[in-house]
Amino acid sequence: MHISVNIICPICKVKKVINIPKSIVNQAKQLSTISIPKGTICKHHFQIFIDKNFSVRGYQKVDFELGVQKDSEIKNISSPYPVKKEMTLEEIYNEFWEFIDDNNEVFRKFILADKKRRNLILNTVIKTVNNRDLLENI
Ligand SMILES: [Zn+2]
Prior knowledge:
Layout: E1 2-8, E2 15-21, E3 31-36, E4 46-51, E5 56-61, H1 70-73, E6 74-76, H2 89-96, H3 108-113, H4 115-137
Antiparallel strand pairs: 1-2, 3-4, 3-6, 4-5
The structure holds zinc ion.
Zinc ion is lined by residues 9, 11-12, 14, 42, 44.
Protein backbone atom coordinates (compact mmCIF):
# COMPACT_ATOMS: atom_id res chain seq x y z
CA MET A 1 0.00 0.00 0.00
CA HIS A 2 1.52 3.29 -1.14
CA ILE A 3 0.51 6.89 -0.67
CA SER A 4 1.33 9.52 -3.29
CA VAL A 5 2.99 12.53 -1.72
CA ASN A 6 3.84 15.77 -3.47
CA ILE A 7 7.45 16.66 -2.65
CA ILE A 8 9.20 19.95 -3.35
CA CYS A 9 12.97 20.07 -3.11
CA PRO A 10 13.87 22.73 -0.48
CA ILE A 11 16.98 23.69 -2.45
CA CYS A 12 15.97 23.92 -6.12
CA LYS A 13 12.15 23.77 -5.68
CA VAL A 14 11.68 20.96 -8.20
CA LYS A 15 8.33 19.26 -7.59
CA LYS A 16 7.59 15.59 -7.97
CA VAL A 17 5.01 13.12 -6.69
CA ILE A 18 6.56 10.09 -5.04
CA ASN A 19 4.94 6.96 -3.69
CA ILE A 20 5.70 6.32 -0.03
CA PRO A 21 5.02 2.86 1.42
CA LYS A 22 2.33 3.19 4.09
CA SER A 23 4.36 0.98 6.42
CA ILE A 24 7.25 3.44 6.84
CA VAL A 25 5.13 6.01 8.62
CA ASN A 26 5.11 5.05 12.27
CA GLN A 27 1.53 5.41 13.45
CA ALA A 28 2.72 5.61 17.06
CA LYS A 29 4.64 8.80 16.40
CA GLN A 30 3.40 12.18 15.29
CA LEU A 31 6.22 12.84 12.85
CA SER A 32 8.40 10.54 10.80
CA THR A 33 11.57 11.64 9.05
CA ILE A 34 12.13 10.34 5.56
CA SER A 35 15.39 10.79 3.74
CA ILE A 36 15.06 11.58 0.05
CA PRO A 37 18.26 10.42 -1.65
CA LYS A 38 19.91 12.17 -4.58
CA GLY A 39 18.23 11.31 -7.85
CA THR A 40 14.76 10.73 -6.40
CA ILE A 41 13.37 14.22 -7.01
CA CYS A 42 16.44 16.02 -8.31
CA LYS A 43 20.18 16.03 -7.66
CA HIS A 44 19.76 17.01 -4.01
CA HIS A 45 19.60 14.92 -0.88
CA PHE A 46 17.17 16.17 1.76
CA GLN A 47 14.80 15.02 4.46
CA ILE A 48 11.08 15.46 4.81
CA PHE A 49 9.02 15.40 7.98
CA ILE A 50 5.75 13.66 7.39
CA ASP A 51 2.83 13.32 9.77
CA LYS A 52 0.50 10.37 10.32
CA ASN A 53 -1.80 11.63 7.59
CA PHE A 54 1.03 11.70 5.06
CA SER A 55 1.10 15.49 4.97
CA VAL A 56 4.55 16.98 4.58
CA ARG A 57 5.16 19.16 7.64
CA GLY A 58 8.66 20.36 6.84
CA TYR A 59 11.85 19.93 4.90
CA GLN A 60 15.47 19.87 5.92
CA LYS A 61 18.54 20.20 3.78
CA VAL A 62 21.17 17.52 4.26
CA ASP A 63 24.58 19.14 4.11
CA PHE A 64 26.72 16.05 4.30
CA GLU A 65 26.08 12.55 3.16
CA LEU A 66 28.45 9.82 4.33
CA GLY A 67 28.01 7.08 1.79
CA VAL A 68 24.87 4.99 1.71
CA GLN A 69 23.74 3.65 5.06
CA LYS A 70 20.54 1.71 4.65
CA ASP A 71 19.61 1.78 8.35
CA SER A 72 19.74 5.53 8.56
CA GLU A 73 17.86 6.26 5.34
CA ILE A 74 14.50 5.97 6.98
CA LYS A 75 14.30 6.77 10.62
CA ASN A 76 11.65 8.03 12.94
CA ILE A 77 12.25 10.86 15.32
CA SER A 78 10.61 11.51 18.63
CA SER A 79 11.28 15.23 18.61
CA PRO A 80 11.28 17.39 15.51
CA TYR A 81 14.24 19.35 14.23
CA PRO A 82 13.91 22.99 13.39
CA VAL A 83 13.18 23.18 9.68
CA LYS A 84 15.00 26.46 9.25
CA LYS A 85 18.17 27.22 11.17
CA GLU A 86 17.08 30.83 11.83
CA MET A 87 13.97 29.79 13.77
CA THR A 88 13.97 30.76 17.43
CA LEU A 89 13.10 28.21 20.09
CA GLU A 90 9.76 29.91 20.55
CA GLU A 91 8.95 29.70 16.84
CA ILE A 92 9.89 26.04 16.80
CA TYR A 93 7.74 25.46 19.84
CA ASN A 94 4.73 27.22 18.33
CA GLU A 95 5.13 25.30 15.08
CA PHE A 96 5.66 21.87 16.59
CA TRP A 97 4.19 22.03 20.10
CA GLU A 98 1.89 19.10 19.45
CA PHE A 99 4.91 16.92 18.73
CA ILE A 100 7.03 17.95 21.69
CA ASP A 101 6.98 15.67 24.73
CA ASP A 102 5.58 17.15 27.93
CA ASN A 103 8.88 16.52 29.72
CA ASN A 104 11.10 18.02 27.03
CA GLU A 105 13.82 20.01 28.84
CA VAL A 106 14.62 22.35 25.97
CA PHE A 107 11.04 23.58 25.67
CA ARG A 108 10.18 23.40 29.37
CA LYS A 109 9.51 27.12 29.82
CA PHE A 110 7.17 27.19 26.81
CA ILE A 111 5.42 24.01 27.94
CA LEU A 112 4.78 25.44 31.41
CA ALA A 113 3.43 28.69 29.97
CA ASP A 114 1.28 27.01 27.34
CA LYS A 115 -2.42 27.03 28.19
CA LYS A 116 -3.57 25.00 25.18
CA ARG A 117 -1.09 22.26 26.01
CA ARG A 118 -2.18 22.13 29.66
CA ASN A 119 -5.76 21.59 28.52
CA LEU A 120 -4.59 18.81 26.24
CA ILE A 121 -2.72 17.09 29.07
CA LEU A 122 -5.77 17.37 31.32
CA ASN A 123 -8.00 15.85 28.64
CA THR A 124 -5.58 12.98 28.14
CA VAL A 125 -5.49 12.20 31.82
CA ILE A 126 -9.27 12.20 32.05
CA LYS A 127 -9.58 9.89 29.06
CA THR A 128 -7.05 7.45 30.50
CA VAL A 129 -8.91 7.28 33.79
CA ASN A 130 -12.22 6.70 32.04
CA ASN A 131 -10.83 3.87 29.95
CA ARG A 132 -9.51 2.14 33.03
CA ASP A 133 -12.87 2.51 34.75
CA LEU A 134 -14.57 0.93 31.77
CA LEU A 135 -12.24 -2.04 31.82
CA GLU A 136 -12.82 -2.62 35.51
CA ASN A 137 -16.57 -2.59 35.01
CA ILE A 138 -16.32 -5.40 32.43
ZN1 LIG B 1 16.88 19.95 -5.68
